[in-house]
Amino acid sequence: MLLIPCPWCGPRPELEFHHGGEAHIARPEDPSALSGTEWAAFLYHRGNPKGSHAERWRHQHGCGRFFNCVRDTVTDRIVVTYKPDEKRPA
Amino acid sequence: MTQPFRAPSGGSVRGDRPIRFTFDGRGFDGFEGDTLASALLAHGVHLIGRSFKYHRPRGIMSAGSEEPNALVTVDRGGGRVTPNLRATTVELYEGLIARTQNAWPSVRFDLGAVAGFAAPLLGAGFYYKTFMWPASFWKRIYEPAIRAAAGLGRAPAAADPDRYLHRYAHCEVLVIGAGPAGLAAAKAAQGRVILCDEQAEAGGSLLSRLETTIDGVPAAAWIASGLEDRVTVLTRTTAFGWYPGNTIALAQRVTDHLARPDPGLPRERLWLVRAKRVVIATGAIERPQVFPGNDRPGIMLAGAAETYLHRYGVLPGHKMVVSTAHDRAWFTAFALARAGVTIAGILDQRQAVVEALLNQARDAGIPVWTGARVVGTGGRRRVRFVETEGGPAVIPCDSVLMSDGWTPSVHLFSQSRGKLRFDPDSGVFLPGVSAAEEQSAGACAGEFDLAACLAAGHRAGGGSTRTFSVAHEPRFGAPSRPSPAQPHAKAFVDFQNDVTTKDLAIAASEGFRAIEHVKRYTTAGMATDQGKTGNLNALATVAQLTGLTIPDIGLTTFRPPYTPVTFGTLAGTSRGDLFDPVRRTPIHDRDAVFEDVGTWKRAHYFPQRGETMHEAVARECRAVRGDLGLFDASTLGKIEVVGPDAAAFLNRLYPGDFTSLAPGRCKYSILLGEDGFIRDDGVIARVAPDRFHVTTTTGGAASVLHHMEDYLQTEFASLRVWLTSTTEQWAVIALQGPRAAEALAPFLDDIDLTTMPHMSVREGHFAGVPVRLFRVSFSGELGFELNLPADFGRPAWDLLRETGATRYGTETMHVLRAEKGFFVAGQETDGTVIPDDLGLGWTIARRKPDFVGKRSLARPDMRREDRWQLVGLLTADPAVVLEEGARVTGADRESLGHVTSAYRSATLGRSIALALVAAGRGRIGTTVRVPMPGGDVTATVTSPVFHDPSGARMTAAIERLPGRVTRNLVSRPATVPTVQPSTEVAMTLVPAMRRFNVRTGVNLAPPLRAAGHTALWLGPDEFLVLDDKPPPIQADSLVDVSHRTTGIRLEGPRAAWCVNAFCALDLGDFPMDACARTLFGKAEIVLWRRGETEFHIETARSYLPYVWACLEEARREFLPAAAPR
Ligand SMILES: [Zn+2]
């Protein structure tokens, strides 16, 4: 059971969280301006990297907030978590 | 009864406390402190069971949990039957009943032993080869026969009557294994320390080191010294699994060793320990030698014999042969000789042995042969002689002690994803690179010198470097390396699965190289002991056979559990009524037959005397269409959307136009995903310019809120709007039928129904109680939905029954909506359906520049003319009801779609169905065929609206109404059963109070309690305010949630313990007045610490019975002994 550090609540058990897919995929300002290919890329294409991965989590059964998390998909270690309006730490 | 093999002295069993037990129906006695194995050995009983495949007689090989042979079934009465227990770990208690397994009619005369003659058929890979042909024989003959003959104990047939609990625990240091290294680690560790050991007492190998002293203190006394209170010592507790985040699962056996356990105690407790650091001190497991006939009863590991002598005062035999390749076993021989055993010889495979050992053997009169080995054994049910090479041809004996050295127990280290390294010097795998916050110390790290183990443990526990002075400890060289063995049909490597060196040779000759393949082909290491004693011998043998090295062949994966764990322990309280929360609405009219909808119990239908379901549903349908029906819709999801940008937010999220929706009006709306497909639907009411009441389906309540929060927090974060779940705040009663307005009007204090058009909402009072009244219809009739504070739901229901309304359930609701062609999310939709498919294109505001899903709806695929569209189907035979899910086919049997809903319609006097059919709207009037089990059914495609296509009935204007009747409802709050009082942990329901969900940028905490209210922090800008009146707070959003949750107060020294039985939070780091929304089992709660030993738990109303019952389970062990439990 991972211990996930919520940026607002601190480390809390994985059970309280809900995974939300890859992070930093902003909804386009004007979706109607996008081609079908571009829209499909936004909607469906994800990185699925081996190693360091920025992903969204929601502290569903806690403060309810969404946040971002860099997790190593090989070791399952959480590198850093940060608020949604923050940049991915280097 | 005499115990002929009990030593005159020695051992820590209580000779003054005899215990009677039965084994295979025969009475025996043993002593307090014995295991089943030690007590049987004291009587000279070695034959314990028959082997898995060949039914060979098997005895006791070890003294611990690694035992592969001595498996028994223990019957504790009342259906408490546990198979496959190792006799070496079953503690004796008065009246214990144990049986052999896998033997018929008895372990002495086992007919299955003929399988031994069929052994050539059962070798490696026999599953794949012998029984392949003819195929039909496999299922009917081979498999049943093999299954009947082979195998271990039988699973009990009755339900397990025992109780099991879970517990979350946190500590700075968890020490696994209470041998010398583990004890040294626990004593050195700081902070909260948990020390666990699978045995009945701490000490490990120190328990058989009778003369050794540590720092001048006898080993036995050193064990407990310096273990302060902060060290939680858990004996009979196996660390069986390592999970991410340094979470270690421990199985604690609480009552199995007790003759009459306290019924308040669980049988076992699963500890989920989150440790900042773990010290692995799991020791090492002695390896058997691999020689022909090494499995006969009476052949035992040398270290086990020493344990039986020193801890239990039991001699495994009177005339022994010791067979080894290293020094340690010599000392076992000397100790047994001193205890009066005749050592018939020591066979050491080494050519050269240190002089001191040879001298000591000579002094003790023990014959010694170096460069010698056992090459065969004899004896039917017990070993009677060994044949040797390098020694006498035959040595008579009644037992053999063998030792091939020790294998470090690296199981947990490997589970922690640590990388093992092969140590060529010792020939074993040792912990290499760590992946978790852990450190291995002692024998599990390859260290076998006691002083070094103590020092390593001390360091691993966090202590500074120090030395331990160890005295009166024999000095011996390193243990021997695993030695490969020659292929032989009776030289066993894996005793539990009956795998021999010959099987390994077959696998090697057939080209298997990787140990993972050899393992699967031969089943070596795949039994319940997971090859604890045999895996390394198998590796060494395969390496020799293939000419490869052990690292080349690889190591099989170590998987949890380390030793078998009973399912009851894993399930804990998640069984029966507590498997899932059972949620009831505030109305829950028990006259209904209920159905499960998610975790809710919903009224399915209300049968009258003698009615079938169909009769009841037909009557209920006629009542709604012709008169008046009453329906409990409380499970509908509800979300309060509040803020100046509320309309703008809904505009972006839903396809409809909400800016133009006037306060007091409602809009039906479909919720789309970004992919354009339908997720959910519901009615959205604008209660005030900045306040909307959004409804969702019952099943969509949580996911819609999640979806909304997702967009609000991440994409539309600039909008000033806040969401509050109010699902449980409101009880919802639907009043549907031509008489609805007339029946409702008298009870409305301040709402004029004649001013309420279809799809409108009013706030006012119903029989003196605040109501949010919707004029909406899911039945197609004139109808209303009353949203009342939950405590008033049932009284309002009872009052409305006085109008003569007919109660109806979900089945009638479904028939009525199907007659109207209203879809149900999840029934007509499957994640690929868009609004236009259902004829609901009109709900989309085309001129809006954007909303979630809009871009996807513009995809060419969404405009294809052959998309599946919702239509009605009328069967040619009106009595035939189609099957939901049945295919709809065309003239050439081509698939056109499928039936989504089908019912008997009392209104139409025939069956009806809804279906998704390719280009369905264009097929109206045509005929399709629906394959059904009895043959094709012909049906005509129609409009999906079967009843009142114009909608005139539900939109009718309301005129002339009867006068008002003054009634005042009395609330009916949630109740719970009375509880047993306990000073250890008292539990009470908190009296009703006002609660408000407050959203504000102003931080209300601290101070937590100000101006007479308590503000519980739930998240940034979100507070739950407990107060008797609306709090004097400048709030961005203020929603009354007084009825949404109920409070439980838990008080007493064991309060935190009970919370941690279901809640994973670290309450050692949860100070006074801390609060958190969190999980409690499968329920969401708000936990607030009101004092060192006092907690307040807020639970959603429908989860109260579940949370309450869970706490009752946790409290049971702390109730006064006299209380019924
Ligand atoms: Zn949080």
Please explain how this structure is put together.
- The complex is a heterodimer of chains A (90) and B (1125).
- Chain A is mainly beta and 90 residues long.
- Chain A has a domain at 17-24 and 50-90: Folate-binding fold, CATH 3.30.2270.10.
- Chain A has one helix at residues 36-44, and strands at residues 3-6, 10-13, 18-22, 52-58, 66-72, 78-82.
- Chain A has a four-stranded antiparallel β-sheet, with no helix packed on it. A two-stranded antiparallel ribbon of chain A has the order 1-2.
- The two termini of chain A are 26 Å apart.
- Chain B has 1125 residues and is of the alpha+beta class.
- Among the domains of chain B are: 14-149, Ubiquitin-like (UB roll) (Roll); 164-284 and 408-471, FAD/NAD(P)-binding domain, CATH 3.50.50.60; 289-403, FAD/NAD(P)-binding domain; 636-726, Aminomethyltransferase beta-barrel domains (Alpha-Beta Plaits); 848-946, Elongation Factor Tu (Ef-tu), domain 3 (Beta Barrel); 986-1118, Gyrase A, domain 2, CATH 3.30.1360.120.
- Chain B has 25 helices and 61 strands.
- In chain B, a hairpin with a 5-residue loop joins strand 47 (887-889) and strand 48 (895-905).
- The radius of gyration of chain B is 37 Å and the shape is elongated.
- Chains A and B meet through helix 1 of A and helix 18, helix 22 and strand 59 of B.
- The structure holds zinc ion (ZN).
- The site of zinc ion has 7 residues of chain A, from loops.
List descriptors.
A: 90 residues, mainly beta, Folate-binding fold, four-stranded antiparallel beta sheet, 10% helix, B: 1125 residues, Ubiquitin-like (UB roll), FAD/NAD(P)-binding domain, seven-stranded mixed beta sheet, six-stranded mixed beta sheet, 25 helices, 30% strand, binds zinc ion
